[in-house]
Amino acid sequence: MPVERTLAIIKPDAVRRNLTGEILSRIHQAGLQIVAIKSLRLSRAEAEGFYAVHRERPFFNDLTEFMSSGKVVVMVLEGENAILRWRELMGATDPAQAAPGTIRREFGTSIQNNCTHGSDAPETAAFEVSYFFAAYEL
Ligand code: GDP
Fold it and tell me: Is the pTM of this model over 0.70?
């Protein structure tokens, strides 16, 4: 199993509802290491840059408005197979379709307000980690 790094975000809906501690606890319990972590608020332009691959999707405006609506917690997680393991902890994009026990199933309230983000492949992880963290922070 390769040791990977992935970019995780606790989205504004989860931060507002004080779910940060619960989500960090699940990451620790899964044995993933938090290499770097910070709290920040994205500008609209920064959210648009992060989600640039989705700019043609019908939900792009709503998504970037939501992602810039309040504080987020961004972090780099590390471990064997970390990209897939974090996505399994999160569950499917739509909370209604997510497996029981996953973060999105337990705490997500809509397909947009689904509490967390996780990179979906090594290439996107590299882009997303570098979007938020400088080398000296890692
Ligand atoms: P992810 O990799 O599971 O986060 O899913 P995607 O890359 O497909 O979508 C990125 C994010 O856009 C999701 O996590 C949701 O917050 C949001 N999103 C996805 N599909 C929809 C949709 O149909 N409507 C809205 N409003 N937001 C969506």
Answer: yes
